[in-house]
């Protein structure tokens, strides 16, 4: 809390001991009233963990969820291509005849010569042998050589002479002819004079057909099941590789743990994605229009954790910032409404003087606002507006695009005035990376809440925004990951509970605008009276109770 200046006002300067949370999430020592040293409770962060590391909890699950579609599509595409190629190829039949080779007795020596199977394979597929078969089947030698294959099983003297052809009958006939041609080529022949002497076989070996060629019953190629299986494996490997490459090149956030690691601050809330109709303000203020929805629960949890942080560092002014064009206005509006619905007085300030949209969420006028007060054309009492949410007042951006960075005197004075009117001040800042006004506001605020969009924000943007905010004295209490998961349509507009948690002084009031699915309306306050500043303590269950007025 800001120090009392003696006349009931509150200055903006804060002692160094009022900042309990370091950016790395460690406990920061504080000095108690009795001079003893203590520590504020802090929230554990994932700043020391790398969200890309396979050891990070849930890493592979998030990886599969993010890239499952790409992996499946690539796998199916490659598999379909392999199947198409396999079915487009001509079926061919293979017929084989076996020929045994044995040493021929030599007249000059009683020692038989061992056949060289490599040489015999070359001879069986040579032009001389194929030409003999060509004359019997009446096919060109080149055609026979294309379908011919000769193999020799290990540790045997057997040649397997095979022929492949789309016609299975022709395949058997040619294989048989090629085997016979080789046997003929290797068979000794009588001399021309018909003498009893026998010519020696070439190489000292002889051949005999032991297994004739058989009629094949099934095609030998293509093996369609094998081709499809190989395509499936190749597609899966290729798809996974592409997914890893995309994951390495994609700089978007991977989830809450990734946001914590990049910002160096805990994630205080994760807001589920829901369909946002910018023409329906009730669809943006979910804590008012849809109090029983999951996004509303997330904002109430955010409120509780912000109150915990505020109680720890004795702060009342919260700056809601974001790196670029995230929905920080929606987050700030719902957080301020949640604070007001819990019985606290809150002022919601739109400090985005160039593109602020808070007035649209409340269907408020924007002819007078923050810029009007800073330029001296309107008093705070003329610029501030009351909303239908009990305890929530609104200060819109105003019509003029004033330079916040140049209002070194007016801004602190304005914040002092607003601290007399409310328990908490929630300020929507412009984009940190595109406006110097965010840094100027961070110099005056006591707490900063960084909003990131799960679909748009990048790691580089979050790191740059966190680094920029670190230069200011305000405490970065945490982050909000907005728009996470698949977008879901909210249920029909429900009756809100604006009086829940309200004090007896305010009393419960029914928000008829929210009950009808409309945006909460605002009323121009003709003469707002300063209320005594009330602080909040946090109960054991996480909800906060108003303290006694000071």
Q: What is the CATH first-level class name of the largest domain?
A: Alpha Beta
Task: Categorize the overall geometry.
Answer: rod-shaped
Low-pLDDT windows of residues: 1-51, 190-199, 495-521, 523-550
Strand content is 15-25%
Number of strands: 17
Supply the number of structural domains. Answer: 3
Q: Assign the structural class, choosing from mainly alpha, mainly beta, alpha/beta, alpha+beta, or little secondary structure.
A: alpha/beta
Using only C-alpha atoms, the radius of gyration works out to: 42 Å
**What is the straight-line distance between the termini?**
13 Å
Your description of this structure?
The chain is α/β, with parallel strands linked by helices. It has 3 domains: 52-89 and 222-254, no CATH class; 94-191 and 199-211, 2-Layer Sandwich (Alpha-Beta Plaits); 267-525, 3-Layer(aba) Sandwich (Rossmann fold), CATH 3.40.50. 36% of the residues lie in helices and 17% in strands. It is built from 17 helices and 17 strands. It has helices at 59-88, 117-124, 127-137, 141-147, 168-186, 224-249, 256-263, 286-289, 294-313, 328-341, 358-361, 370-374, 380-383, 410-421, 437-444, 459-470, 512-515; strands at residues 29-31, 37-39, 93-103, 148-151, 158-165, 205-211, 267-274, 317-321, 346-350, 385-387, 392-395, 424-428, 447-453, 475-488, 522-524, 536-538, 544-546. The strands form 4 sheets. The protein has a 9-stranded mixed sheet, sandwiched between helices. The chain has a 4-stranded antiparallel sheet with strand order 4-5-3-6.
